[in-house]
Amino acid sequence: MSRSATAKWQGSGKEGTGHLSAQSGVLKDLMYSYKTRFEDEPGTNPEELIAAAHAGCFSMKLSFVLGESGFTPDQIETKCEITLAAGAITKSHLIVNAKVPGIDKDKFDECAKNAKENCPVSKILNTEISMEATLN
Asked: How many distinct structural domains can be found in the chain?
């Protein structure tokens, strides 16, 4: 399986603008800029998209891990806070609230730890990055 997204940027880093699109079409020419990334202008930015991806991936992985342990969650809500400092993503913090009938706290903590360590997005946040760069 392969998924893709495209970013198009025009102009300088501070005054330019970019547009993001995803293969699925759920994101289509979504604008981002210096102001949406580093200031408080409304709009998205790469860190927000990483946070959404991590929260979504973790929640789904936790549901699978709970299921493997014999539990079906009523609800899992995960907020992810991405910290960008000194030009690098320095932290991804997951805040999880879940309703899981019949599970005790120790078992839930074990399942959550497993999901945190093994969801695909957790694994990629510290991995090799490859690139093909073409100048037209």
From this structure: 2
Return d(Cα 74, Cα 15) in angstroms, integer. Answer: 46
* Run of H or E including 123: helix 120-124
Residue 19: give the domain boundaries.
1-44
Measured CA to CA, the distance from residue 17 to residue 94 in angstroms comes to: 30
CA–CA distance, 6 with 28 (Å, rounded to integer): 9
Residues 27 and 56 grouped into a single domain: no
**pLDDT tens, N- to C-terminus, the chain (136 residues):** 999 999 999 999 999 999 999 999 999 999 999 999 999 899 999 999 999 999 999 999 999 999 999 999 999 999 999 998 888 888 999 999 999 999 999 999 999 999 999 999 999 987 666 767 655 4
In degrees rounded to 5, what are phi and psi of residue 58? -60, -45
